């Protein structure tokens, strides 16, 4: 009687095989990441289209100290509002993950999130308005020429107009 079984010490362990396969997959993923990153620069990203105090300071460096003073005046309020928005989101997530989910409480928490976000956006717009008001008419014209205008392509796609 001959058996084709290998001795106990020579059988490869299932865990060893799985570990080797996962290591090969991980090496492949890292290799693909490195290959795809070859031609990319890792500098700062392009700013979003629109207007902000930071963009104003980059566009008109001579007015940066004046705009920075305006930003400093709004900084504390912006931090408070940003913290309130983050806390509202955390509370909403907490309610979402509770075992005894209450849909009415969750809906109220989403209203709080929306209110906190609106307050933060309002303060940000006040900061932008104050910063723009500090510029001369010539500087405002320069800013207007450099700021990317919003396009309405997404509206046309949404409503089906071509």
> What portion of residues is helical?
55-70%
- Poorly predicted spans: none
Q: Structural class from helices and strands?
A: mainly alpha
Instruction: Give a short account of the largest sheet.
Output: none
Principal-axes geometry comes out as: extended
Number of strands: 0
DSSP summary: helix tally? 6
| Rg (CA only) | 28 Å
Strand content: under 5%
Helices and strands, in order, run as HHHHHH
Average per-residue pLDDT, rounded, comes to 82
Distance between the termini: 80 Å
Write the layout of secondary structure elements.
Blueprint: H1 14-36, H2 53-59, H3 64-97, H4 103-133, H5 137-146, H6 153-159
Helix pairs in contact: 2-3, 3-4
Describe the structure.
The protein is mainly α. Helix content is 69%, strand content 0%. The N and C termini lie far apart (80 Å). It has a domain of 96 residues.
Describe this protein with a few key phrases.
extended; 6 helices; mainly alpha; 162 residues
Structure at a glance:
The chain has 162 residues and is an all-alpha fold. The chain has helices at 14-36, 53-59, 64-97, 103-133, 137-146, 153-159.
